[in-house]
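Everyone, describe these structure tokens:
***
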Amino acid sequence: MTKKLLIVDDEECILELVEACLSDIGGWTIITASSGQEALKIAQNQPVDGILLDVSMPEMDGFAVYEQLQTNLATKTIPVIFLTAKSQTSDRVRFAQMGIAGVIIKPFEPFSISHEVADLFGWDE
């Protein structure tokens, strides 16, 4: 069965690149959102197998989106991978304490991101 992924990023070029890599190379169905609010609506109304979530977004950052997902029974069990340019030690400690599936650091390698996502979610390719 094809996995369905929600990709959330406020930068359109990143959204398009990740979508192309994960649909073409990974073979997954992709839904995109360009804001935290949009992502929450989609996650509540459409079943998704995982979420790639940008940390640095205006209005509602990835941390706030993740917290909202965790408080909703319908979205609480969806695994989340953070997509971020933040890779300082304090950020890594915070990520480790959150219970997310993993972190992919920008800039990422387009040809290997689908393998990285599959590994972090524990999906067989």
